[in-house]
Amino acid sequence: MAEMLSIEIIYALPTKQQLLTLRLPAGSTVQQAIDASGLLQKYPEIDLKTNRIGVFGKLSKPDAILHDRDRVEIYRPLIADPKEVRKQRAAAGKVMKKGAGDGE
What we know:
The longest helix is centred in the C-terminal third of the chain and has 10 residues. The protein is 21% helix and 26% strand. It contains three helices and five strands; from the N terminus they run E-E-H-H-E-E-E-H.
């Protein structure tokens, strides 16, 4: 009998998250786990060419081999670029105060 892995797949939406637990054969890849989850059919907005994927918060490739109890995460695109938001705040005069370490 082949060894089976227990894998979690998660896709978070703005108002809820979809978390599934799967049993897959040892040697399964991230892509195989995503395909087996059915999330691509349930959420057609997921495009693995643009959505990034990861395992426990670290970016991963679809052909990465999974280990028992791994959690595969499908990330949504960012709504705003954090660097751009900081630039806009600075331009609006909401800059952070300098620290008190000027040495005077």
